[in-house]
Amino acid sequence: MATARERLAKATRFYQIIWALCLIGMFIPLISPLGLPVVVSEPVKAYYNSIVDLPEGSVIGVSFGASAALLDEQEAQFLATWKTIFEQHHKVIFYCSTEDASIVINNELEVVVPESYGYTYGVDYVILPYSPLGEAGQAAFAQSIRSIYSTDINGDSLDEIPLIKDIDNAEGIDLLIYEYTSCTDIEWAVRQWVVPYNKPVIATTLGCCGPMAAPYYPTQIQGFLSGSGAGTELEVISGNPGPGAAMSDAKNLGILPFLAAIIWMNVKPFIGKEE
Amino acid sequence: MAMFRREIPTAVLSFIGVVILLAFFTTLDIFETIKGVFTSWLPVISATSVGLGLIYMVYAQYMNYQRNKNLNNLIYLVVPLIFFVVFFGTALVVPGNISSDAYQFLYFHIYQNVGGTIYAVMFFTLASSAIRTMRLATKDPSGAIQFRLEAAALMFGGIIYTLRQIPLFQVYLPGITGFGEWIMLVPNVGGGRAAVMAAALGAIVVGIRTLWGKEKTTTEVD
Predict the structure, then answer these.
(1) Number of A:B CB contacts under 8 A?
(2) Whole-prediction pTM value?
(3) Distance between CA atoms of B59 and B56, rounded to whole angstroms?
(4) CA angle, A233 as apex, A232 and A237 as ends, to 5°?
(5) In the predicted structure, residue B157 carries a pLDDT above the cut 70
(6) Do the Cβ atoms of B196 and A215 come within 8 Å?
(7) Full residue range of the structural domain in which residue B15 is found
(8) ipTM of the complex
């Protein structure tokens, strides 16, 4: 009979082998891409349609709560979203709700350059700096933007920026794109934008947060992207290739050792192997 | 002292709570205006709490080091401070502040990579814990095999939804796309909405207790 320490060591070795096989599985498609087609899910289609169905020139508010550490999971979503918005010539008010967001959005807009779509800063898009909003901050923003922000990210007064000089609350925003990385935060958008103002909201988040956004879809949240897979799907449906394709490819083989391990763990008791 | 620690914070909480509720349940503009003022204070309070959190963290690490003076605790104390000084100093001193090349380098080549690595490492723990959680057949001490219903439900839903996310299975396992989406949008939504409603009912109870001054956890930590 093995001691607890020996059993732990054996289990650790088992998991280390699985981890190593998963890593190898992820690297193979990066060296030799499989290029398999991606099926677009309903929430992603609804997310895309919410943007493209707006009349040209509509004002989209983007509550941007990105984290630099999680960009690998979300960058595909962001880039495809900005491209889709700019192609439709909607106006955009980005407001940053996390410390990282203002730096990340500036970096993103160097990759997807709004000016290359004919945009002018201040007229077609504006970036509002970081403010630790939380749920009360979202409520305050929806009620009065100037109660939270007096200037944009460059320090210019909102009253001097053509796009936002006549907009001060949810009334001036036609669609909210709510970006968040803490799963239950989806409720903030529902409580502070949908319930009081009946504003259409779509959301982008991490893969693990998708199941918590789903209960609000499609009534309160009209569509959502969860994880890099949804980012890839948006790239496909919008026709804007990006980093998501490589990530989806890497998942193809990386998941196999994980599934094999689950099967093995369930078969083991039946063939008399020690647990 | 108890009055400052308990009664006054509770009174402030109750007052603000009642005013916010009145803004939702009446049509009087005065309550809407006051609600706007209160909610716009939040970013100020949050920003202040970030600074307080930093002071508290440094103090806690310092006390930890004083109690147990070893190399690990010294590293825990000094390394965050070095990073804080380097990042804060660069943002403050270098022309261009956080838009400067120096800060951008620190941010995208150190901070982002460290953060990304931490999340990536979670893959290993998540994978191994998921494998254990999805083990539905186990042996009891007598050697008999038992089946765990919760593990079976989790394994079934989890694997189907996972397979739906992988292009390999979308192509070679016909029907997995629709089935995976059904798992996400039907059983998951049913359970999720039930959980949200249960949480909302709980929140109402906590809210009423808070307004009534009975919820000690809002002003005190045991």
Answers:
(1) 165
(2) 0.85
(3) 5
(4) 120
(5) yes
(6) yes
(7) 11-69
(8) 0.77
